[in-house]
Amino acid sequence: MDVCAQLVTTRQGRKEVINLTVSKPVIVGRNPDSCSYLIDDTLVSAIHCKIYAVRSPSGGVIISCQDVSRNGITLNGQQIRKTAVIVMDGDVIQLPNSLSFTCFHLWKECAERLSFFDPTPPLQPRQKRVGKYIVTSQCLGTGSFATVHLALDPEKDRQVACKSIRTKKDSEVGQVVKEVRILITLKHPNINEIYDTEENKKFIHIFLQLCTGGDLFTYITQATGTGVRICEAEAKYIMYQLLLALNYLHEKMISHRDLKASFP
């Protein structure tokens, strides 16, 4: 299978490379029966973290690291515990008193049509400050009127998604703000929580809960592209979760008029 990213480390003076491929997670830890990369250090858990690669809707790759350990990991010096984070090109994952891994993305993003950043993504990750948030050039999804980028919330030490919507008329701004005011009140496990909004020049930025696994459309097309269809049981479970969220919206007298598998 094609290698889409690499994790590079140095062990006992020797360079080691973990190749990442789509839909084939790498499990790091001490347990030889469960892990694909073994580290025999006392502070490393039997299963310490799981690293996933999924296709990005914009043509690149999304690398995520899920911590399942007792002692956590650090991403670029920031402590991470019992959660999943997106790992960008050049990011460093450090295990406690053990190895560190530098991530290199081999699949690059395609040019974006409508972006808060320059039309062509930069070779190196860039950042822009929007309110209290730091928005990165890591694109998570694109649409006709919006792009979604990975962002950081320094006050709460967490990653979030930033959906940037370009508005051309004042009436469009009012409509978007009205919708956001409705969505920000919603609390449901199958609906991404909206944390905050900011207006910046011709953009409205919506900061919301981050999902590290890509969007449903990419997941479906990725499966069918390899000749393997999503099984009936999995399709039922996906629809069950969607219908739970829709039922919650209907109970709130809210109609969702743009339900689709892609994001945004």
Short key terms for the protein model shown above:
Phosphorylase Kinase, domain 1; Tumour Suppressor Smad4; six-stranded antiparallel β-sheet; Kinase-like_dom_sf; 17% helix; 3 helices; serine/threonine-protein kinase; 264 residues; alpha+beta; 17 strands; 37% strand
Give an account of the 3D structure.
It is a single chain. The chain is an alpha+beta fold and 264 residues long. The protein has 3 domains: 5-105, Sandwich (Tumour Suppressor Smad4); 127-208, Phosphorylase Kinase, domain 1; 216-251. It has 3 helices and 17 strands. It has helices at 170-183, 216-225, 232-251, and strands at residues 5-11, 14-20, 26-29, 37-38, 49-55, 61-67, 73-75, 78-80, 84-87, 92-94, 100-105, 127-130, 133-142, 146-153, 158-166, 194-200, 203-208. It has a 6-stranded antiparallel β-sheet, with no helix packed on it. Strands 12-13-14-15-17-16 form a 6-stranded antiparallel β-sheet, covered by helices on one side. β7 and β8 (78-80) form a beta hairpin. The two termini are 29 Å apart. It comes from Gymnopilus junonius (Spectacular rustgill mushroom). Belongs to the protein kinase superfamily. CAMK Ser/Thr protein kinase family. NIM1 subfamily. Belongs to the protein kinase superfamily. CAMK Ser/Thr protein kinase family. CHEK2 subfamily.
Q: Give the strand tally.
A: 17
Total domain count: 3
Q: Beta-strand percentage?
A: 35-45%
CA distance, first residue to last residue: 29 Å
Rounded mean pLDDT is: 86
Overall body shape: globular
Largest sheet data? 6 strands, antiparallel
pLDDT under 50 segments (min length 5)?
Answer: none
Element string (H = helix, E = strand): EEEEEEEEEEEEEEEHEEHH
Q: At the third CATH level, what is the topology name of the largest domain?
A: Tumour Suppressor Smad4
**Can you give the helix content as a percent range?**
10-25%
Give Rg in angstroms.
19 Å
Q: Widest sheet: strand order?
A: 2-1-11-10-7-8
Name given to the CATH architecture of the largest domain: Sandwich
Structural class: alpha+beta
> Helix segment count?
3
Organism: Gymnopilus junonius
GO molecular function: ATP binding; protein serine/threonine kinase activity
Keywords: ATP-binding, Kinase, Nucleotide-binding, Serine/threonine-protein kinase, Transferase
Family: Belongs to the protein kinase superfamily. CAMK Ser/Thr protein kinase family. NIM1 subfamily. Belongs to the protein kinase superfamily. CAMK Ser/Thr protein kinase family. CHEK2 subfamily.
